[in-house]
Task: inverse folding
């Protein structure tokens, strides 16, 4: 796992400021502190920060292909590189290293842009073809690895993190009020947008090509010089098949197949030349992952987990129970509000977007723990809830769909209190009123996610430009609707919800703000067996009626891993991973941070946020009255938004200077150092 | 102080953080307009009980009593007379 960056000249020769490589690579040195490499020709610069995991000796990057025609800078893993290398050797390719990077180069030579269809992995990559003078960019199917782009004058900048673009001399990213409004409404930016003006993300499951000499790289929602191609999308069964009755015997047969595929997905993710550990949250998914590794490796597994001082959030008992059950060497870290607040500024530097929860912060502490135990790679249970239907948003959609057939029913909406026990305390008629909004609009493609978004939008109310925010949110919705695959309309309510959850919340928040950024912030690579695309594709061909049985979440998955797990883990009600939000800031570290970023005089004139409203929010927080989830999201959104504004604004240059590589840290590579 | 004004002030300060713009009229539904959520209703009830000395029974937790400034102020007025 690594960090990549580059600068392509779109017109004329590359005019690269001397310090650009050291600045761009240096500011993301956390992604790959083992080696720093660079290469350039007359048109392009490629940079690389390496976290050495496979072929420690000869996998250096940027790497050249045969005869130096192609050069690559690659972040990630192609887990099936061994099989691909064998296949390519059969076609006459000769390999000089045993790295997956070299396999990508040969795969590109052999299969061109379609090579990505053959990769089982998590990746963001850039390949420069010196003959065609063409840059090829690609990102993995689910968006596990990030890739950002920014046209800048006659150049195209790209990098694993926005901060590396920002470190390019003369390029100052500015927060885009519209991009921030999107996050306040949807939790995430709808690709290719980001919170910054003129900065884009390559959408998951896409490739892009750009020719040097393509002078026109206009900036109309997407840099026009980039030809975008979608090569993969999650897929599901048509509604009638998806919701058909599935017999018990058939279910058991499906569970056996899921188990086999899950084993394959986990085992292939153990490929590394360094030890592989696992996160253990105490829930089903990470317990299953850890158990799978335990059953299929010889070495004693080491597991890591985070515990909370707050009993409401703590799952230590379950984590220890599972660790004892499979006999792992288990290490934990205890986190409280002071820790969360103390690292929050650092967390926002890594997320590069406003966040509406503190939940990333404990994960930052957890990756620091893994790293301190000399682990560079961990497997986690991420993705199981999306692929095998675990989240409440799916059950909620199913209940609302059921209720919509009898909108007058007062009993049907009561099912919602089974999903959200705290709702039992809110008046039933109000419950009906809230979840009943848009109840019968079942043809609305975004049906499942409307209630969530209706709650989040309160955060956008803190922005100064309300009309602009409303327009941006509308634009984002249209962008999302345009991106839906043709099959979408044939899917049922739950499958649609799964698709939306995978492509918005999972890609844009869980895999980035809680995933890649928190792991890579401490130079740790995460691997996610449940996001193996073959497993996910297979799960998409199984009826939802087996995956979500009545309202029993992940029923099929539970059956498939039942033999490996203790009964109490299997039958445990799902506990969403959360951390104390605004309460974490009622601590010395928190008060200091709130004073700095939300206190009087902290606003930069009439900036992005409405200072009067922020003042009222802070007063309510000071009085200890931020009780609702909505108020907490507002508090976290505004606080993280303010931190982002400063760290990527006035605070940026100091940060770049501190992290810049020394000239002797950077290895310039040439043809002879290639393969 | 007029009950309605006091309720309005509370809603503006507590749920809208001082920004009265979304409250275009006193008859509008607080829930439909996203000004309060179903959990927020409980905050509102606690406020009525504390500041107006009324007590609210379970069966009174209905939109007809609580879902607009008009409904809230007539509800409080009825309770205070009773």
Result:
């Amino acid at each position: 796992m690594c960090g990549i960056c580059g600068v392509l000249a779109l017109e004329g020769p590359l005019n690269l400021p001397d310090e650009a490589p050291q600045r761009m690579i240096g500011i993301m040195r956390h992604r790959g502190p083992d080696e720093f490499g660079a290469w350039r020709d007359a048109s392009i610069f490629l940079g690389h920060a390496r976290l050495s995991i496979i072929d420690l000796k000869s996998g250096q990057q940027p790497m050249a292909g045969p005869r130096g025609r192609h050069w690559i800078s690659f972040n990630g893993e192609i887990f099936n590189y061994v099989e691909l290398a064998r296949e390519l050797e059969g076609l006459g390719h000769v390999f000089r290293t045993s790295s997956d990077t070299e396999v990508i180069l040969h795969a590109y030579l052999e299969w061109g842009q379609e090579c990505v269809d053959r990769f089982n992995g998590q990746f963001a990559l850039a390949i420069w073809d010196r003959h065609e003078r063409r840059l090829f960019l690609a990102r993995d199917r689910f968006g596990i690895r990030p890739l950002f782009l920014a046209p800048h004058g006659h150049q195209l900048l790209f990098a694993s993190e926005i901060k590396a673009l920002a470190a390019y001399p003369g390029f100052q990213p500015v927060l885009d009020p519209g991009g921030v409004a999107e996050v306040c409404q949807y939790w995430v930016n709808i690709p290719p947008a980001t919170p910054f003006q003129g900065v884009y993300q390559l959408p998951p499951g896409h490739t892009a090509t750009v020719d040097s000499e393509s002078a026109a790289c206009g900036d109309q929602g997407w840099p026009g010089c980039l030809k975008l191609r979608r090569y993969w999308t999650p897929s599901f069964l048509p509604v009638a098949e998806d919701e058909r009755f599935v017999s018990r015997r058939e279910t058991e047969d499906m569970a056996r197949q899921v188990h086999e595929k899950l084993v394959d997905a986990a085992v292939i993710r153990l490929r590394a030349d360094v030890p592989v550990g696992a996160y253990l949250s105490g829930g089903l998914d990470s317990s299953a992952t850890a158990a799978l590794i335990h059953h299929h490796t010889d070495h004693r597994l080491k597991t890591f987990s985070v515990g909370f001082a707050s009993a409401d959030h703590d799952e230590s008992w379950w984590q220890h129970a599972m660790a004892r059950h499979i006999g792992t060497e288990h290490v934990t870290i205890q986190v409280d509000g002071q820790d969360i607040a103390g690292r929050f500024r650092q967390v926002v530097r890594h997320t590069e977007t406003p966040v509406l929860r503190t939940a990333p912060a404990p994960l930052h502490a957890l990756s620091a723990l893994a790293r301190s135990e000399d682990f560079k790679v961990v497997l986690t249970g991420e993705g199981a809830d999306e692929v095998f239907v675990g989240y409440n948003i799916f059950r909620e959609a199913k209940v609302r769909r059921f209720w919509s057939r009898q909108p007058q029913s007062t009993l049907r909406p009561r099912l919602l209190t089974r999903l959200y026990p705290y709702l039992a305390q809110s008046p039933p008629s109000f419950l009906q009123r809230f979840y009943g909004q848009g109840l019968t609009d079942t043809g609305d493609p975004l049906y499942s996610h409307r209630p969530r978004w209706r709650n989040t939008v309160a955060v956008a109310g803190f922005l100064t430009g309300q009309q602009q925010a409303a327009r941006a949110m509308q634009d984002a919705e249209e962008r999302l609707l345009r991106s839906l695959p043709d099959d979408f309309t044939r899917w049922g309510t739950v499958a649609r919800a799964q698709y939306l959850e995978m492509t918005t919340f999972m890609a844009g928040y869980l895999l980035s703000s809680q995933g890649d950024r928190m792991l890579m912030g401490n130079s740790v690579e995460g691997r996610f067996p449940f996001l193996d695309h073959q497993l996910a594709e297979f799960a998409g061909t199984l009826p939802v009626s087996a995956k979500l049985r009545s309202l029993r979440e992940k029923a099929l998955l539970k059956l498939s891993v039942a033999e490996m797990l203790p009964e109490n883990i299997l039958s445990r009600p799902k506990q969403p991973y959360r951390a104390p939000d605004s309460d974490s800031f009622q601590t010395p570290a928190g008060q200091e941070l709130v004073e700095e970023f939300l206190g009087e005089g902290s606003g930069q004139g009439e900036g992005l946020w409405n200072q009067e409203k922020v003042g009222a929010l802070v007063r309510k927080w000071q009085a200890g009255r931020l009780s609702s989830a909505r108020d907490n999201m507002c508090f976290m959104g505004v606080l993280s938004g303010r931190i982002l504004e400063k760290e990527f604004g006035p605070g940026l240059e100091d940060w770049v200077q501190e992290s810049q590589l020394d000239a002797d840290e950077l290895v310039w590579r040439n043809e002879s150092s290639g393969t | 102080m007029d009950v309605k004004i006091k309720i309005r002030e509370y809603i503006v300060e507590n749920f809208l953080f001082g920004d009265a713009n979304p409250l275009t009229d006193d008859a509008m539904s607080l829930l439909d307009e996203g000004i309060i959520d179903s959990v927020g209703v409980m905050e509102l009830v606690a406020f009525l009980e504390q500041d107006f000395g009324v007590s609210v029974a379970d069966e009174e937790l209905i939109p007809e009593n609580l879902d607009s400034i008009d409904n809230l102020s007539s509800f409080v007025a009825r309770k205070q007379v009773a």
In short: Chain A touches chain B through 32 residues (CB under 8 Å). The CA atoms of residues 244 and 568 of chain A lie 30 Å apart.
